[in-house]
Amino acid sequence: MPNLIYLLEHYGVLIVFGIVLVEQLGLPIPAFPILVVAGALAVDGDMNGGLVLAAALSACLISDFTWFRAGRHFGKRILRLLCRISLSPDYCVSQTEDKFKRWGPKALIVSKFVPGFNTVAAPMSGALGTPPGLFFLYAGLGALLWSGTGIVVGVIFHASVQQVLDLLSTMGSTALLMLATLLGLFLLYKFLERRRFRQALQIERIGIDELLELIEQGEEPLMVDARSATAQALEPAVPGALFFNGKEPVPAMIAMDKDRHIIVYCSCPNDVTAAQVAKLLHQHGFHRAKPLHGGLDAWNAAYRSDEPAPASLLGEGLPS
User: Fold this and answer.
1) Bridge partners, residue 262, by sequence
2) Which of 41, 149, 206, 240 could form a Cys-Cys staple with 46, CB 3.0–4.6 A?
3) How far is it, in rounded angstroms, from Cα 186 to Cα 188?
4) SUPFAM superfamilies from the xrefs (predicted)?
5) Closest-CA residue to 71 (of 19, 22, 139)
6) Phi/psi of residue 223, nearest 5 degrees
7) Whose CA is closest to 94, among 271, 241, 314?
8) Per-residue pLDDT of the chain (320 residues; tens, 9 = 90+)
9) What is the pTM of this model?
10) Is 243 exposed, middle or buried (0-12, 13-18, 19+ CB in 10 A)?
11) Any residues with CB less than 8 A from the CB of 274 and at least 6 apart, and which?
12) Is the dihedral of CA 242, 245, 251, 255 positive or negative?
């Protein structure tokens, strides 16, 4: 452990840069604590506070611009990838996307303080066509605010932080084992959180082949688009689909036949948002509501842009 303190004092700027960079790129490694430690060490002159801030800003902007370019080039596909690999269930919730739609690029100023939102903000900026200059302005302000907050916290509580470092330095290899255990417990917690989130949304799904069979049989299922307004702006909906962005069924659905087939789709991995909406519809008596397995991608794969959608669906949706 004394060697770790030595590394922080002599190579702390590089360590801050590396940890902030990998965390901002998406790895579940908390970087804010290292900023606090760096701020505390800067008080006694063991680290250069200005260089620490510059390193953190550089790491944030490199990561943000990487995700911005990925969002610009790959669009919604990069958002889906982030949702798939993330340990946090927040990324699949449509309200997270709509936060950006509501506030626009200005949301980048506070996005790093919001778990989940931080990961999608930069690629969403690119996917929605935010001008690069405007992106750098707000992303830079957000990185400065987040990094500066961590360093200032360390400066304010430098005495307490120094006591913790002194304690760790007397524990030798036990301290490293303890830190590794805490990191492992953090990752385990995030994994179990995601697993519980998925289990809570277990519901019978309908495959695209079953849906096509229903359509061929003349059942005329109601298609419900459960994507966020942001996702709907990025990709066209199924023709005739009802847009569902609220927490309650729209008034036009209340008078519907409760036995009608309702197919809910979204563009999240694991059909998370669609499963949420389908469960809500079950609570309102629509017991045949099912999420579409594979979501909008499955529909688009069955009906390419050069192939017309089934005539039975066109004009069958209800007003949103």
Assistant:
1) 222, 289
2) 41
3) 5
4) Rhodanese/Cell cycle control phosphatase
5) 139
6) -90, 130
7) 271
8) 445 566 676 788 999 999 999 989 877 788 888 899 899 888 888 788 899 999 999 999 999 999 999 988 887 677 667 666 565 554 454 555 666 667 778 889 998 988 767 777 888 888 878 899 999 999 999 999 999 999 999 999 888 887 776 666 665 566 566 667 777 787 787 777 777 766 666 788 999 999 989 888 888 899 999 887 777 777 888 988 888 866 666 666 777 788 889 999 988 767 878 888 898 888 888 889 999 998 888 898 887 644 555 555 544 444 44
9) 0.64
10) middle
11) 226, 264, 265, 266, 268, 291, 292, 295
12) positive
Structure tokens at 145: 């605010």
- Determine the distance from the C-alpha atom of residue 68 to the mean position of all C-alpha atoms in its chain, rounded to a whole number: 14
Tokens 């519907």 — which residue? 256
Quick one: tokens of 86?
């993330």
Token couple for 264: 């809910």
Is 290 within 8 Å of 278 (Cβ atoms)?
A: yes
Give the number of other CB atoms < 10 A from CB of residue 308.
Answer: 9
Please state, in angstroms and rounded to a whole number, the distance separating the CA atoms of residues 77 and 296: 12
Amino acid at 118: N
What does the block give as tokens for 159? 């005495």
Task: Give residue 260's identity as a one-letter amino acid code.
Answer: R
At 295, list the tokens.
Answer: 């979501």
Q: Report how far apart, in Å, the C-alpha atoms of 211 and of each of 44, 294, 295 are.
A: 67, 12, 12
Cα(225)–Cα(190) distance, integer angstroms: 29
Residue 179 CA to residue 95 CA, distance in Å, equals 34
38-to-164, 170, 182 alpha-carbon distances in Å: 13, 20, 20
In degrees, rounded to 5, the angle at the alpha carbon of residue 218 between the alpha carbons of residues 214 and 219 is 55
For 279, other C-beta atoms within 10 Å of its C-beta total 16
